[in-house]
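Internal tracking record. Fields below are filled automatically when a chain is submitted to the structure queue. Please do not edit lines marked as system-generated. If the sequence contains nonstandard residues, flag them in the REMARKS field before resubmitting.
Queue: standard
Priority: normal
Entity type: single polypeptide chain
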Amino acid sequence: MNRVEDSIKRLTVNPVLRHIGRVIEKRNFPGVPIFVVASPRSGTTLLLSILGAHPDIYTVPEQTYAFDRWTRVPFRSYKEYPYRIDRLYREFIFHGFDRSAGRWCEKTPRHVESIEKIADFYGGRVRIIHLIRDGRDVVVSSHPTHTGRQYWVSVNRWLKSVQYGWSLREKPYLHTLFYENLVKDHRHEIRRICTFLDEPYTASLDNWIQETNVKKSIHLGGEVQPVHTGAIGKWQRPEHRERIAEFMANPEAVAMLRELGYSGE
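SYSTEM-GENERATED OUTPUT FOLLOWS
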């Protein structure tokens, strides 16, 4: 198939997928949708896996990037439309979903840059969890599937992602969660999230590794593991000295670090 044929196919198929997807969403997911956003390498897959154990929440296993590109539309209640929303609907149509769950949860870290647009699109009927991790640990993290690249997230990318989400922390549809708190006491933090989501805390969340529908992920490099604090403070290892020097040479990043409550030293 050449590029022109592919473009024609997309124009023909995408509206069909959007229509079917909207029907599925309306019939099966009457609850308020949930988004998990962050800078990459901040623990979003772990959080998604835990939430996937809740019987009332269907967690979409794959990142969809469905809400990172928008187009303006006239005469609508919302200002912009996510024209790749079919990527979300494809998950429902082709991969199935838990029909006993009343709402869906999607995580694509990059959607942190679309928080306000997402909220506008859903008329405020949305719940967004912004996960924040110490930027120094973020910038020394690598991705398990990209072995040729030592570090995955640049200092500026962490800064941009965190700044935007942090600036909206008072919005009623947004909950800010620190990665370090999550791994130190995940039961407490998940209880707080359940309150934010207006969902009961269930026994399945205590046994989340067995109950979740997200049991493995390329972002984890394999199967999910019990919550642990071993990834906190990796930036202090001597092999990351130059990388951390780069981070600390960025005054805006250091200021953000301190504003978030990290020592910055």
